[in-house]
Amino acid sequence: MIKSWNIRNFKSIAEESKLEFSPLTIFVGANSSGKSTIIQSLLIAIQTMQSQVQARSVVLNGHIVRLGSFEDIVSNFDKNGDITIGFEIEPNFFSKEYPGLIYSRRYFRSNIEEVNKIFYEFSFSSHGISSDKTELLQLQPKLKYCNLQLEWNDEKGAKKEVIKITRSKEDVKARIANLGFHENVRMPLPTSALEYEIETDENVNFASELYYRYPKTGELVGCYFRHFIPYLYCIFYDVVAEQADYLVRYLVQPGINSYRYGGQEVDGNLRFGNNLQDFINQKISEILTDAPNWESHQVKVTELNRYAAKLKKKFDWKDLRTFMEHCPPAVKADLSEWAKANEEKIKSLYREDKVPNPQLTSLPLSNNADTACDFLYNFFHSQVKYLGPLRDEPKPIYPIAGNIDPFEIGFKGENTAAVLDLHKDLLIQYVKSSDFLENNLEIKPVETKLLDAVSDWLIFMGVGIKIKTDDKGKFGHELKINTVDSSEMHDLTHVGVGVSQILPILVQALIAEPGSTLIFEQPELHLNPRVQTRLADFFLSMSYIGKQCIIETHSEYLINRLRQRAAVLKGDEVADKVIIYFVEKKGGKSKYSPIKMNSYGKFDHWPEGFFDEAEKLAAETLRAALKKKEDR
After folding, report:
1. 167 lies in some domain
2. What's the pLDDT band for 128 if we cut at 50, 70, 90?
3. Distance of CA 203 to CAs 116, 134, 162, 527, 581, Å?
4. I need a labelling partner for 422 at 20 to 30 A (CA). Which of 168, 197, 436, 575 fits?
């Protein structure tokens, strides 16, 4: 669940605004006050993650929303600044709050439950370095900065990891040269990672199960991204220095695993200069001189002498390993202490006759950081659903849409008929509409078929009794409904437009996976007051089955229904699930005022302009009526 959303310098949000989100988060306010601005910032993240071009840091113009250029969306109060978006996500919020829920489709790794909280912040801008094309950056802005913070618990208690990455002030060519690569050399990996620098690495860890693969002398010099999410570290190392380090570690701990990185394998590629050969052979001679002292270990001294003779004649890495493998434990311990004491000398002797060989390799983030980033990517790619304010018009038959996700109804609900027909027998968890009857104080999720759940809520809202879908082959899908005042089945062109407006909302919300975040803009459009009122019950029911709803609305009926539910249901059950933001614009800047209700449905404050027109109009009508009566 999204716990909070931060945004700065985006459209009318000039100053940093941090908004706490609840399972049911609602934005209300006047037109052009900034409600849609928050929604658009969410849509940027969604359409960016759904883009196939992962090199694009941020996608401003995509399949969901078209925002123009960076200049069009940056705040007028700081045209030269960056746009910053941040969010805190609690991956296991609903699994903790509702342990009985069934998560049937997993889009992320199972060990995400180990992570308690993920905070991620990134900024982007159209201002690059001198070699960047300004015109292109206006349409394809670059990531400027990102900050990943995650918290988890292990057997030792609470843990935290922080990764900060900034866009380098040097261009890639300059960084390549500074790392020691020759001009025009063919790089072993894409150099896009060198556009970024790890700002701080004191908290950066590597995946423990892959530790043996990492160049121990390596340096974090960059990062590969999937859009604005870190994906892989870029490590710079010198092959010669790494081989020298590996040699010492092998002498200290014989039998250590060999490993491969960047196409280079350490084991089998070690070459020894004359001075290093003499230095190691001298130690071996000392060992063999003490041979009588360890005959009790049943070691064949003659066999060791034979390997030692080979090393003196032609020093070879394979023969050195064979010699080490046949040494008794006491001798290995002696060699280990000798290597520790002479570590720097051994490394220096190994490097002295070799030319530096710089290389780049890519390595995963730490276990939890890698899991968290993978979760963030898949969360925005697949777990956040959006339904726009203008739903698809009613049709007798809904044409086939090619290449759609079988669970995606479309941003206008255009695939609702196909999705409902395909999954009508899918077992889902939902809250029965009867749980929201006035005298019922307990809400409990149950399992049923998708089509039955949709029908249940259609009946409760008073727009239909029975719904039927049919696959018409190449023509598409037919959707018919039996309305309250008719026993005949009709397609949606022959019933009220409200059915075609409410149906996508029901299908999208009910079929979504627990843990999903659902975004609805003006869901009340074309719906009568009764349906708007009961729509509040439906959105509230989503919070009981592990689904978060973020809603932009002008519906006073929806808000008042939530107040009534807070008073009817026991304790703070509703108050804890709902937060309302009243949005207003002052001096060209949007301001978001949180409004909480208590267990009696009372708001903690009532901002001016917050659904007060009805009260004002009623008061004016009463005064006018009294005056008119007095004048008679």
Report:
1. yes
2. confident
3. 18, 35, 6, 53, 36
4. 436
What's the pLDDT at 108? Answer: 42
Give, in order, the Cα–Cα distances in Å from 52 to each of 49, 62, 143. 8, 11, 17
* pLDDT exceeds cutoff 90 at 618: no
Query: How far out from the chain centre does Cα 422 lie?
Result: 28
Measured between its terminal Cα atoms, the distance across the chain in Å is 62
In a domain, 461, yes or no: yes
Q: How many CB atoms within 10 Å of residue 329?
A: 9
Instruction: Report, as an integer, the average pLDDT of 220-225.
Output: 92
pLDDT confidence of residue 124: 96
pLDDT in tens, 242-262: 889 889 988 998 766 665 554
Three-state DSSP state, 278: helix
Residues in the chain: 632
- C-alpha–C-alpha distance, residues 66 and 373, integer Å: 26
**SS3 assignment, position 488:** coil
What average pLDDT does range 329-336 have in this prediction?
84
Using the 3D structure, point to which of 369, 404, 434 is the last residue of a domain.
369
How do strand 477-482 and strand 517-521 relate by DSSP bridges?
unpaired
Residue 323 burial (CB count, 10 A) = 22
- Residues 189-210 have pLDDT tens digits of 788 899 999 876 555 555 544 5
- Give the burial string for 79-88 (b: 16+ CB within 10 Å, else e): eeebbbbbbb
pTM score, whole prediction: 0.85
Residue 255: how many CB atoms within 10 A of its CB? 9
Q: What b/e sequence results for 279-303 when a residue is b if at least 16 CB atoms lie within 10 Å of its CB, and e otherwise? A: bbbeebeebeeeeeebeeeebeeee
Which DSSP symbol is given to 525? T
Q: What is the pLDDT of residues 271-300, one digit of tens each?
A: 889 999 999 999 888 877 766 565 555 556
In-domain check, residue 309:
no
To which residue do tokens 């040269």 refer?
177
| Residue 6 near residue 83, CB atoms below 8 Å | no
Pairing of strands 17-20, 517-521: unpaired
Query: How many CB atoms sit inside 10 A of residue 518's CB?
Result: 20
How far apart, in Å, are the Cα atoms of 121 and each of 63, 114, 148, 370?
Answer: 24, 21, 7, 16
Contact indicator for 592, 19 with CB cutoff of 8 Å:
yes
Q: What's residue 102's pLDDT?
A: 46
Give the end of a domain, one of 334, 369, 404.
369
Number of domains in the chain: 2
Q: Does residue 166 lie within any of the structural domains?
A: yes
Burial of 482 (C-beta count, 10 Å sphere; 0-12/13-18/19+): middle
Buried-exposed string 392-419: b where 16+ CB fall within 10 A, e elsewhere: bebbeebeeeeeeeebbbbbebbbbbbb
Residue 576 pLDDT: 92
Full domain range(s) for residue 177 = 2-240+365-369
Confidence of residue 613 (pLDDT cuts 50, 70, 90): low
447 phi and psi angles, rounded to 5 deg? -110, 135
Give the DSSP letter of residue 105.
Answer: S
Residue 573 dihedral angles phi and psi, to the nearest 5°: -55, -45
Which of 182-191, 248-257, 466-475 has the lowest average pLDDT?
182-191
Residue ranges with strand state E in 239-357: 260-261, 264-265
CB-count exposure of residue 2 (10 Å: 0-12, 13-18, 19+): buried
